[in-house]
Design brief:
- The structure holds 2 protein chains of 2 kinds.
- Chain A is mainly α.
- In chain A, about 75% of the residues lie in helices and about 0% in strands.
- Chain A is globular and about 70 Å long.
- In chain A, about 45% of the residues are buried.
- Chain B is mostly helical.
- Chain B has one domain: MetI-like (MetI-like fold), CATH 1.10.3720.10.
- Chain B has a two-stranded antiparallel ribbon.
- The longest helix of chain B is centred in the first third of the chain and has 33 residues, at about 90-120.
- Chain B starts with a helix and ends in a 5-residue tail after the last helix.
- Classes of the chains: A mainly alpha, B mainly alpha.
- The interface between A and B is large, with 116 and 117 residues.
């Protein structure tokens, strides 16, 4: 490795060039639908419905976006989605932080049982729970009621968020906390000033998980939210499609608006996301 | 157990007494404080997961029809729902279709993901960044948006896919071909969508895992004259087996329960020929208002998945790779 001679180096380099080319081809194919979404959203109406597709949106136009934004109720759906998503993220994070610290830092009777419950619950697929959750919310009159949906989303991410945060808490050396306590820091102060900042990567990773889970959910929102004024964005987007004549331009523009927050989030934290989900998986 | 146990960061020794609780020194509060901290989570889980789970099991033994929705009364039918669905040729078709769908999705995901993660190891830094960004974009795209874009790309007259496929001239003239009104092409498209959408998670996870394997192992193997395939077989795959196992189980669970892409693209049609278990449970319960039968379909799904996961983990642990 340290002193490559010319004959061994050039095949290696050629190989790398071949690999790079393949990687670029794969990337182009993989990212094409994302590109196509944005490109379609930026096209003029006449260029969307043409038998020969226009591959670059030119001249660009924002008319699809204005049409999507003008649809009746658009802002209501945005508000619903944001309310439901943000409240379930904040609630699930608060609840799971406490639980994670308790599990990671205290040996209490029943700790093992709690851990087992978390693992078992994680195994039950959410889709199987739609029917009983629907009937439960119905019997307590919480159908079509925003807090009911928030409660559902919040709980479904709890096993994952608690488990992940527990790992992050355990990775923080206890000595740090003890030092803070010795220095006269109160217990609560110690959690806020010492532990919380160190947990930030974990908090970011789990918030994004909880955010995407609620933002992108279709089936629960579709089943639970029956009146149009309570639709979230996914339910509204799909109802676009089933209306008689589909306005593809506006539908794709609305999908773009809906996707952008998540795309930006993921790009910002992509490195932590992959690391957070898999760290220790191999060495464990 | 082993599955999620592995998710935590590697550094902390899991059960070392040394990292024991600072709170242990205060016996009086030791028992109450942690329970108080766990209580909200447990309460939520009991209410929104525990109770519905029990309700699901009870429901699967009841004849819970539209009338029961209003009266709240339903008759106990024992295993009647189960014997009925297993005698139903529709359900058996759905079962077989789900197995085919899942096997294809998971096999394609794992193979393509593995190859892609291997490719990422051998490219220049800039190419790695570009590919990762593309993968992350696909990963991040919400499923509903992805499905609608799919619908648009495969729109018969104006979709870009039909135009491209017609230009290739291999498949004949596909302009105005309606993919979603033919069962096999529709299911194929749903599989392609699922694989495309799931690929980034698999590829990036495997890439991260691959990065943790020491390069010196490969160098030693190369010196011993091992080829690429041999290194796959004897180094990469054995070391990555735990990750591969987790990913396989997760992808199986996700594929079996897949709902949004199928429901949005075909609603299980034409003629129920793209219905899989997740969609079938939904249709039985909410379209036909047979909540009892729908619940029994969901129970069967959960049982199948549980048996599969247990068997799979067992087989792996017998090979001594997953503890």
């Amino acid at each position: 490795m340290s002193a490559p001679t010319t004959p061994t180096r050039s095949p290696a380099r050629r190989r790398r060039t071949v690999n790079n080319t393949i990687a670029m081809a794969v990337s182009a194919v993989v990212v094409f639908p994302v590109y196509w979404m944005v490109a379609t959203a930026l096209k003029q109406r006449a260029h969307i419905l043409s038998s020969v597709p226009q591959f670059f949106p030119w001249p660009m136009s924002l008319e699809n976006f204005t049409r999507a934004l003008d649809k009746s109720g658009f802002w209501t759906f945005v508000r619903n989605s944001l309310t439901v998503t943000l409240s379930s993220v904040v609630l699930s994070l608060a609840i799971s932080l406490f639980a994670a610290v308790a599990i990671a830092r205290f040996r209490f009777a029943g700790r093992k049982a709690v851990l087992t419950i978390l693992v078992l619950v994680q195994m039950v697929p959410a889709a199987a729970m739609v029917i009983p959750v629907y009937l439960m919310l119905r019997s307590i009159g919480a159908l079509d009621f925003v807090p009911g949906l928030v409660l559902t989303y919040m709980t479904f991410v709890l096993p994952f968020t608690i488990w992940t945060l527990r790992g992050f808490v355990e990775a923080v050396p206890v000595e740090l906390e003890e030092a803070a306590l010795v220095d006269g820091c109160g217990r609560l102060q110690m959690y806020v000033r010492v532990l919380l900042p160190l947990l930030m990567p974990g908090i970011v990773a789990t918030s994004i998980f909880a955010f995407v889970n609620a933002w992108d959910d279709y089936i629960f929102a579709y089943v639970i939210m029956k009146s149009q004024s309570n639709y979230t964005l996914p339910v509204w987007l799909v109802s676009f499609k089933t209306s008689e004549s589909v306005d593809y331009g506006a539908m794709i523009a609305a999908s773009t608006i809906f996707s952008i927050p998540v795309l930006v989030f993921f790009l910002l934290v992509q490195r932590r996301l992959v690391g957070g989900m898999t760290s220790g998986a191999v060495k464990g | 157990m082993a599955i999620t146990e592995k998710r935590g960061p590697a550094g902390a020794p899991p059960r070392a007494r040394r990292t024991g609780p600072p709170g242990a020194r205060r016996p009086a509060r030791r028992h109450l404080l942690p329970w108080a901290m766990v209580a909200p989570a447990l309460a939520a889980l009991l209410l929104v997961q525990g109770y519905p789970l029990v309700r699901l099991l009870v429901l699967s033994t009841q004849d819970f029809g539209p009338r029961s929705l209003f009266t709240g009364q339903s008759d106990f039918v024992g295993l009647g729902n189960f014997t009925r669905i297993f005698a139903d040729s529709d359900f058996l078709g759905v079962l077989v279709r789900t197995v085919v769908f899942t096997v294809l999705c998971v096999a394609l995901l794992m193979v393509l993901g593995f190859l892609l993660s291997h490719l990422l190891m051998g490219v220049s830094a800039w190419a790695r960044v570009v590919t990762t960004v593309c993968l992350v974009l696909v990963w991040a795209m919400p499923m509903v948006a992805a499905t609608l874009v799919w619908q648009w790309m495969f729109q018969p007259q104006y979709g870009v896919a039909n135009w491209l496929l017609t230009q290739v001239k291999v498949f004949g003239d596909l302009s105005a071909y309606d993919w979603f009104s033919h069962p096999v092409p529709a299911l194929a498209l749903i599989i392609v969508l699922t694989v495309w959408k799931g690929l980034p998670f698999v590829a990036l996870t495997l890439f991260a895992a691959r990065g943790q394997i020491s390069e010196s192992l490969y160098e030693a193997a190369r010196l011993d004259g091992a080829g690429t395939l041999q290194m796959f077989r004897h180094i990469t795959i054995p070391i990555m087996r735990p990750v591969l196992a987790i990913l396989t189980i997760l992808e199986v669970i996700w594929s079996v329960n897949s709902f949004t892409p199928i429901w949005v693209l075909t609603q299980g049609g034409p003629d129920g020929e793209t219905t899989t278990l997740g969609v079938y449970a939904y249709i039985t319960a909410f379209s036909r208002n047979q909540y009892g039968s729908g619940a029994s379909v969901a129970v069967v799904t959960v049982v199948i998945l549980a048996l599969f996961s247990v068997a799979y983990v067992r087989r792996l642990s017998r090979q001594g790779e997953v503890a």
